[in-house]
Amino acid sequence: MKKVLNIMIMLVYLIILTGCFQTRTELFNLHIEEDTYTLHEDTEIFIDDEGNLISFISISFKNLDDIVSEDDDFDVNTFGDFSFEDIRLFEIELYLGLNDGDPIKYDLNFLGRANPGRGNAYRFSTTIDELKDEYKALLVVLELNTNIGGLDDRIGYIHLQFKNTKNLKVGATVTLRNNLETQREDALKSLTKIFSEFKRDNYDQEGWNQIHEIYRNTRASINKSLDSESITIFISQAIYDFSRVPTVA
After folding, report:
1. CA dihedral for 26, 28, 32, 36, sign (positive or negative)
2. How far apart are CA 125 and CA 233, in angstroms?
3. How far apart are CA 45 and CA 130, in angstroms?
4. pLDDT category, 99, cuts 50, 70, 90?
5. Residue 217 phi/psi, 5° resolution?
6. pLDDT tens track for 125-141
7. On the CB side of 21, how many CA atoms lie within 13 Å of its CA?
């Protein structure tokens, strides 16, 4: 048992070391784009232990057309896109609404990489004066992610983590998407719902295979779409194609 435990510990160390020896552009391979990412979650998200709810979040990026070094001192509300050999300077704006109140802009101070071996993750600090003293100082981590089945070189969604600096167990993690990715997610949910309503008994084997093929192809097309109009067209075409599959008498 002890031998197995030692092997597991060595594997963990190996994984950590492997991440540490990756180059910056290997760890950070998703380019920042000028866009706004917002919260679209229906669940209650608490930011502290006092019952304060996050009701609105938006993160916006703007390219400042400047080149910086990772070791530079960054002005407030700026950070570097580490995915480029020549690090590009971006402006970042965080708006946060608590308890259904009006969104307020909060300053972000860039702290660099979230962790040595963690890819596409940036760390910031902020202060939310509306919270009690023991909760107002927060670490903020932006983790950029791709969509499963989507393009591997574009941001699909952002995990935004708030962590209390005095108690890292206190905080929240939310998912942010831009307008295109929100439409993509909604379209995939709609497609899956339509697909789930078909009954096997209503089709022969060939027809049932066609239903599955339409679903798979449409899902793949939506995942790769680069514009809103295409997503709308793919959903409409799928609905039409589904209707053309003959049912058994």
Report:
1. positive
2. 42
3. 16
4. very high
5. -65, -40
6. 999 999 988 899 999 99
7. 6
Helix boundaries (H) for 33-156: 133-136
Whole-number pLDDT of residue 27? 93
pLDDT, residue 50, reads: 87
Reported pTM? 0.81
Question: CB of 37 within 8 A of CB of 176?
Answer: yes
Residue written as token pair 């295409």: 230
Among residues 144, 175, 16, the alpha carbon closest in space to that of 82 is found at 144
Give the tokens for residue 219.
Answer: 């899902």
DSSP string, 126-180: EE-TTS-HHHHEEEEEEEEEPPTTS-TTS--EEEEEEEESS-TTSEEEEEEE-HH
Residue in the structure block whose two tokens are 């809103």: 228
Is 78:110 a contact under the CB 8 Å cutoff? yes
CA distance 103 to 78: 20
User: Position 56: which residue type?
Assistant: F
Tokens of 221: 């097309």
pLDDT greater than 80 at residue 223: yes
> For residue 32, which phi and psi values (nearest 5 degrees)?
-70, 140
Number of Cβ within 10 Å of residue 208's Cβ equals 17
* Structure-token pair, residue 193: 């719902």
> Whats the size of the chain, residue-wise?
249
